[in-house]
């Protein structure tokens, strides 16, 4: 899906419980801050905090029947976002990552459930028994968000929207740390195959977002044609849209991982 979703977007959903946490206090940021503020704070934090391991990356889509966007699009589209677990010395803490017309935000909470209320899980990367040293750190996440922000050039309902952000973060994490996640829990099967390099990004995104087999087939064709058209008509602009696999490759080529994760 990604850039191809030509649907109206709702404003950033702030109905969940976003509160000051140990992490937000350590970083010196508000419970809801912009990508760049988060990245700056992490990069200026003490090294042990920057090395805190990211132990789960999960994408969601809103399924609350009262959601206005869902109702306006006849239940076809709704806001997507990412929730992550970060393991600190005193235990896990949680963040939610959103992209909407009002900006790109990281929100903090003490409860995972509070951040994903009213939503259904799409894709999951999570640590089980494998070492944290082979996975992403808080510093690596800050670096990724800085790259995503640099490639956004503002919110665009027809291209760089919440679908684009969610898939870019999830897929970049899946490919960058594929061995780590594959030794833990990677689900569903489409995301596992993508992490192994057996599935392209467009097919994976469609399989995660559309659950009906017939809808998936239609979606792949529609979003493939839309993305190709966007790439063609934006070929001469600096922030041109590119095929989804090329987008992920570009992110990965600029993402150097940061400080090694450790407890």
The description of the largest β-sheet is: 7 strands, antiparallel
Give the averaged pLDDT, no decimals: 85
Order of H and E elements: HEHHEHEEEHEHHHEHHHH
The helix content, as a percent range, equals 40-55%
Strand arrangement, largest sheet? 1-5-4-3-2-6-7
The counted number of beta strands is: 7
What do you see in this structure?
The chain starts with 21 loop residues before the first helix and ends in a 9-residue tail after the last helix. Mean pLDDT is 85; it is low at 2-14. The protein has one domain. The protein is of the alpha+beta class and 263 residues long. Helix 7 packs across helix 12 and helix 9 runs antiparallel to helix 10 (201-209). The protein has 12 helices and 7 strands. The longest helix has 21 residues, at 213-233. A hairpin with a 2-residue loop joins strand 3 (80-88) and strand 4. A 7-stranded antiparallel sheet has the order 1-5-4-3-2-6-7.
Distinctive features:
about 260 residues; alpha+beta; seven-stranded antiparallel β-sheet; 7 strands; about 40% helix; globular; disordered N terminus; PPPDE domain-containing protein
Short description, anyone?
This protein is an alpha+beta fold. The protein has helices at 22-27, 35-43, 47-50, 68-72, 112-116, 138-150, 162-176, 178-182, 189-195, 201-209, 213-233, 244-254, and strands at residues 32-34, 54-62, 80-88, 91-100, 103-109, 119-126, 185-187.
